[in-house]
Task: inverse folding
């Protein structure tokens, strides 16, 4: 039997919550990483109703990225660079430096608000 992977979801909103719920439902260990001020109010269980099925799963929660096998980064594009800057200081340098470069590239391609309004 293969060893169970431990996943952390950084940014467990709509997309991260879906990924986390499906992973936990499949038997993986999942930790949702949320802001420290949100930790006490974030649910310990995720409920999914839809095309992937209807189920309720328990997940761990943390305000820091734990030691994991897989780190899912599912924050909004506008938050990506700031999240990765903080996480780089925590020792996630190899992946974070690559991802930060991707975030800079993505943000340079986004239209400004003024160009959208008129």
Result:
């Amino acid at each position: 039997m293969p060893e169970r992977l431990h996943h952390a979801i950084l940014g467990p909103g709509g997309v991260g919550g879906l990924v986390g719920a499906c992973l936990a439902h499949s038997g993986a260990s999942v930790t949702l990483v949320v802001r420290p001020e949100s930790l006490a109010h974030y649910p310990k269980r995720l409920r999914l109703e839809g095309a992937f099925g209807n189920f309720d799963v328990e997940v761990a929660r943390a305000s820091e990225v734990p030691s994991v096998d897989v780190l899912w980064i599912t924050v909004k594009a506008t938050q990506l660079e700031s999240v990765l800057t903080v996480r780089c200081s925590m020792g996630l340098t190899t992946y974070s430096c690559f991802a930060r470069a991707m975030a800079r590239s993505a943000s340079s391609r986004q239209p400004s608000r003024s160009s959208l309004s008129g």
Summary: The chain is about 40% helix and 25% strand. Confidence is low (pLDDT under 50) at residues 112-118. The chain has two domains: 1-74, 76-109.
